[in-house]
Amino acid sequence: MPNTRIRVPKTAKAGDAVEIRAIIQHPMENGFRLDSQGTAIPVEIITDFSCSYDGGQVFSVKLEPGLSANPYFSFFLKATTSGPVDFRWVDQDGTITTATEQLEVT
Questions:
Q1: Which DSSP state fits 9?
Q2: I need a surface site. Which of 29, 36, 71, 97 has the fewest CB within 10 A?
Q3: Whole-model pTM?
Q4: Rounded distance between C-alpha atoms, residue 77 and residue 22, angstroms
Q5: What does the alpha-carbon distance between residue 2 and residue 67 come to, in Å, rounded to a whole number?
Q6: Domain of 72?
Q7: How far apart are CA 20 and CA 73, in angstroms?
Q8: How would you write the pLDDT of the chain (106 residues) with one tens digit per residue?
């Protein structure tokens, strides 16, 4: 699993818009760079990233090889109920990685 930093507020008031931030440390190799022997470094990218909360998807993005290393995402969601905020991303080889943070709504 890549080193990932996810920021979800611990608490929020019902109806508030809260900022969600995630950074995934990943090389996002586009296949055009060469190693020290002159061999092309194979393509290695995250293809999809999504976030779900309160039973529905709140953010989704499809990534392409032109994106730089360590993709960073920041978006807002409306706090409606206490529960998990689930994150999911997929590598081009089909590896699925997930993470979950709790949001307490008062």
A1: -
A2: 36
A3: 0.88
A4: 13
A5: 17
A6: 4-105
A7: 8
A8: 457 899 999 999 999 999 999 999 899 998 889 999 999 999 899 999 999 999 899 999 999 887 789 999 999 999 999 999 999 999 999 999 999 999 999 9
